[in-house]
Amino acid sequence: MKSLDLDVLEMVIAVADTGSFISGAKQVHRSPSAVSMRIKALEESMQKPLFTRTTRRVLLTDEGERLLEYGRRMVEMREAAWASVVRPEVKGRVTIGVPDDYASSLLSPVLRRFALAHPHVELRVMGLPSSELAPLLKDNTLDLACLTRVKGIPGDLLRREPLVWVCGDRHREIWKERPLPIAVYASGSSARAFGISALQNAKIRFRMLFESAGVMGLVSMLEAGLAVAPMSRCSVPAHLIQLGEDEGLPKLPMLDVVLSRSSKSNRPPCEFLARALLNDLRS
To answer: What is the pTM assigned to this prediction?
Structure first.
């Protein structure tokens, strides 16, 4: 039986989580060609394909799904074993805020590894839009926040995330309707503001079909074929379709995703989590 290199398993996890060899390579701080080569060598060794490549996404095969489950557990055990010997014991509580669309796509893997590495740190996560997280940082309700850059709130740049138009896989012609039916986040969302502004500048008539505070509300409307929506690319489920200028929709800007801190976050557990986020998410 061939040995399973944990570094290669970490690459498989990163590609699976991001849906892209390019984004996955950034997450593990390697070149896309190196990640592709190492995963291809693993596939040849196992004589099983782990991914199927499409023009838009990279998807796991059934064999890839099974390996991913084991891979996560193996990599997490490595993190926990290393932390138990090398890292000092840290105790306390960290309250972190994150918008719904970043929580599962960006923070989930980092928080899972952090919890394993620091079992005595109590994590509290608040899921709110970026505009609502900003005042909670100012009054120290939050220690940290991973959010779209908000005016007046300083933060370290984690990544520049593309904003894209999205529709349901079975309803690709919805973009032809006029006025264009759109689903958007609630007032205060950068994705909402940029999407509406882009349509107005392109003189495309639209109607607001649905507003939601969370990503699942938008996804339900897209799956039903009722609308298109502006979403951060990292939060787009693999079964949905990204649209663009080829479909006559205006180009959308990039979003700055930042890590912001409150004035009372200079405590060891906050420092350790902030470092983990910067190391794992900074592109």
So the answer is: 0.73
